[in-house]
Amino acid sequence: MKSVVIEQPGELVLAERPQPQPAPDEVRVRVTFASICGSDVHIWHGHNPFAQYPRVIGHEFFGVIDAVGADVDASRIGERVAVDPVVSCGHCYPCSVGRPNVCKTLQVIGVHRDGGFSEYAVAPAQNAHRLPATIPDKLASLVEPFTIAANITAFLKPQADDIALIYGAGPMGLTAIQVLKGVYGVRQVLVVDRLPERLALAQENGADRVFNNSEFPLAAQLEGVQPTLIIDAACHPAILAEAAALASPAARIGLLGFSGEPCSITQQALTSKELSLFTSRLNSNRFPQVIDWMEQGLIQPEKLVTHYFPLAEIARAMTLFEKDPRTCCKVILQMD
Ligand SMILES: [Zn+2]
Ligand SMILES: [Zn+2]
């Protein structure tokens, strides 16, 4: 089978590999569509501290179960599934409180073990979520990116009368806009980014007001409006201090960033307004919820997609995704 392998940092190859066999409690998926994420690019360039090499990348993927390991019901063969990349132990403290995404022995498919940019991939049977016929194959790999927004908003508990501010109109920011508008009915969703093309995409995805902070600071443009809910989906370490300064007293701030650089903020900036700070990593069992949102039409994954490429053009697809954020949002690979 053909697989996208990062042999070592900087070295991406489309390799011929043996087809994996499902272990007990695993299924094998014949992958048909997969989408590219920023973290795939980070593993390629050696910027993901958790990645081990060589690695088949890809953690956003969809396909059909074509084989099952021992102890898995063989009637699952033929099921259309989206695969949750979070593999957890099930019994450590975070697992016991419903937070498998920060399991003490967390393994992420496509990072710690081989992923879905491949004609076949194996995963624990419980990670393969059956999809209703109403979700088309070519959009089904986008369940995973929406689980990121599902996870952070579960902490933030958005209300219709919140004034929400989202930093960054990349894929994470856009899924957050859709979830705040479509699922929670937040009436005011404000979005800030430096690229006008991305801000136009934010509006297409439901943003009520957009701000370009490439020339003028956001504070001046907000004219005293104090957001009550802020999501940092731009993930720059400088954002937290600005967010705290702009926030309403009693606001909630959600962080998705993973930078290793320190961010500088005083205790006073947080405590004087009694701000609540939430961090969110990957997703904790959010696949069923997002599949339900898609089935109900509350979110529109097609609005994120700008390109489809065949697997053979993986290097071109990854480079476009990385270098051209003005024209490129979600890029989907077609395996056959
Ligand atoms: Zn991702
Ligand atoms: Zn665990």
Properties at a glance:
ADH_Zn_CS, Rossmann fold, 10 helices, about 325 residues, ADH-like_N, metal-binding, zinc ion binding, alpha/beta, oxidoreductase, 18 strands, binds zinc ion
Description of the structure:
The chain is α/β, with parallel strands linked by helices and 336 residues long. The chain folds into two domains: 2-130 and 300-334, Quinone Oxidoreductase, Chain A, domain 1; 147-279, Rossmann fold (3-Layer(aba) Sandwich), CATH 3.40.50. Helices cover 25% and strands 26% of the residues. It has helices spanning 38-44, 93-96, 143-156, 171-183, 196-204, 218-222, 239-246, 267-271, 287-296, 314-323; strands at 2-8, 11-16, 26-35, 55-56, 61-68, 80-83, 86-87, 107-108, 120-124, 128-130, 163-167, 188-193, 209-212, 229-232, 252-255, 276-279, 305-310, 330-334. The strands form four sheets. Strands 3, 5, 6, 9, 10, 17 and 18 form a seven-stranded mixed sheet that branches. Strand 1 and strand 2 (11-16) form a beta hairpin. Helix 3 packs across helix 4. The longest helix has 14 residues, at 143-156. The mean pLDDT is 97. One zinc ion (ZN) binds next to helix 2.
